[in-house]
Every structure is written in structure tokens, then in C-alpha cells.
Design goal:
Blueprint: H1 5-8, E1 13-16, E2 19-22, E3 24-25, H2 37-40, E4 43-48, E5 51-56, E6 61-64, E7 69-70, E8 72-80, E9 87-96, E10 99-116, E11 123-135, E12 143-155, E13 161-163, E14 175-184, E15 190-197, H3 225-230, H4 240-247
Antiparallel strand pairs: 1-2, 3-10, 4-5, 6-7, 6-15, 8-9, 9-10, 10-11, 11-12, 12-13, 12-14, 14-15
Length: about 260
């Protein structure tokens, strides 16, 4: 899984499709780019046999706690710090069950690596770093989110940095892998809380999917009913139509306490 690249990034080579691609430090160059779109982009494109396809980027998949309760998170805005270009101010909302809460905080890039894909001659890379988000304490059941992340990018022919979905159709595709903990303001207790695009880091006990994300039977009732039912995997009483309606709901828009 790509979240393991947080460790691999400290080595001099990067494995792509079974070959070794030499990586080089991109930490200075990354300051010349604004990568906020990599976390807020609404559509992604990928190429297959010379054709470019544009699709809607799915909302991140996430879990919280040892019971793998479904965790929702949406970045509403990401703004690069004009005085420190490796920092990004983040505003968004989280959701667990029906509890929705706004948060704000920061992503900080610690390292960036790049390499040239020998198959496509495309410059690709990844950034790793840390995040800390603070949920609004005026809401119930709130706390802080902190941990590490890895985000993959590529640079197009015009020199623009883009969300890396070049291998979107490959089994196990993932991006924007966030791995850390949620800590309650009230009790100070912490729970594992991870999320990502299309797959979730450190989720082998939850994710039984091969080509794409799946949920083991034991945890399906912990908020995953609509996700599974939307794909025709019957869980509970939800119809496919209702499940898809729930999955497409923009729950982060203008909600009161």
C-alpha cells in the first residue's frame, strides 16, 4: 500500500510496476508549487490506451476506533501559507454516524520525492508530512486529529502539478493516505483514525477487497451499509437506489449544530 512509502521514502529507489525507479529529493522544488488542489480536487482524469477519462473523485473512505466505525471527512478548503510554502491551512468537516463537526488546522510537508516513470517518461512523485486538525469544541463528541500522510502527484507537459490518478484502473489504487489518531477534548482518550482516497491505510482487518475496497462481514454494520449496498452488496434493508442517494449526499454543506 502506498502509505508504506512513508517508510520507503527514506531509501534511494522507488518501485513502480516491478521495476526500480531512482528517486531524488524534491523538497525544495515543491515550494514552487501550490498543491492544495491535490486534497480538494473534485474531478480526476486518467488515461487508458491513449484515451483520457474524467471522473468524479469519490469522497475519502475512513474509519475510527478498534471497531472500524466509518469515519467521514471532507476538506472544504486548503490554502497555502504565503509566508511558509510547505504549510497549508485546512478547513473542513468530519462526520461519525449523524454527528457532523467543522474543523480547522494545518498540513505541513516534511519531505517530497520525485522520479521519472520509465514506462511513460512522466515525472511523478509524492509528498509526506504531518497534519493536525482541531474540531470545533462547541460541538458534541469533538477532539483533535493528528498524524502523518502521503500524497501522490505527477507533473504534466505544461509543468502543472496534478493529482496522480495515472494508474487509476490498476488494482489497489489509492492516494491521499492519512494515518493517525483522534483524541477527545473531554476524556483525552485517543482512537486510531485513518482515511484515504479509494483505500484506507492500515486497514487490513477491515478491507477484504482485492481490486478495490471491501468490508469484512464483522464490521459491515458499523456505518458501511450504504457504501456496500450502493454496489449491490445487500446489507440491512437499504435498496440500491437509497444507498446511492446516501452515498452521494453532500453532508458537509450548511448544517446547523
Amino acid at each position: 500500500m502506498k502509505h508504506l512509502l512513508i517508510i520507503i521514502a527514506f531509501f534511494a529507489v522507488f518501485t513502480v510496476k516491478g521495476q526500480e525507479e531512482e528517486t531524488y529529493d524534491f523538497s525544495q522544488e515543491i515550494k514552487n508549487y501550490d498543491i492544495s488542489d491535490l486534497w480538494t480536487i473534485k474531478e480526476i482524469n486518467y488515461e487508458f490506451e491513449g484515451d483520457t477519462t474524467i471522473i468524479e473523485r469519490a469522497e475519502p473512505l475512513g474509519y475510527i476506533g478498534d471497531n472500524y466505525q466509518r469515519f467521514y471527512i471532507h476538506f472544504i478548503s486548503a490554502i497555502q501559507n504565503p509566508t511558509n510554502r510547505i504549510e497549508y491551512f485546512i478547513y473542513g468537516k468530519t462526520r461519525v454516524k449523524t454527528n457532523i463537526c467543522p474543523f480547522q488546522g494545518m498540513i505541513k510537508i516534511k519531505e517530497a520525492k520525485a522520479y521519472v516513470n520509465s514506462y511513460t517518461d512522466t515525472k511523478q512523485g509524492f509528498v509526506t508530512g504531518e497534519y493536525e486538525f482541531f474540531e470545533d469544541s462547541d460541538f458534541k463528541g469533538t477532539g483533535t486529529l493528528s498524524g502523518t500522510f502521503i500524497t501522490n502527484f505527477y507533473i504534466d507537459n505544461s509543468g502543472k502539478i496534478r493529482y496522480d490518478a495515472l494508474e487509476f484502473i490498476a488494482d489497489g489504487f489509492e492516494n491521499n493516505q492519512f494515518e493517525g489518531i483522534w483524541t477527545s477534548y473531554k476524556s483525552k482518550d485517543s482512537k486510531k483514525c485513518n482515511w484515504g482516497d479509494f483505500r484506507i491505510p492500515d486497514s487490513s482487518e477491515l478491507d477484504c477487497g482485492a481490486g478495490e475496497f471491501g468490508v469484512v462481514d464483522e464490521y459491515q454494520a458499523n456505518g458501511w451499509e450504504s457504501y456496500l449496498s450502493a454496489f449491490g452488496i445487500k446489507v440491512g434493508d437499504l435498496t440500491v437506489e437509497k444507498a446511492r442517494e446516501l452515498e452521494n449526499e453532500k453532508w458537509w454543506l450548511d448544517r446547523k449544530k
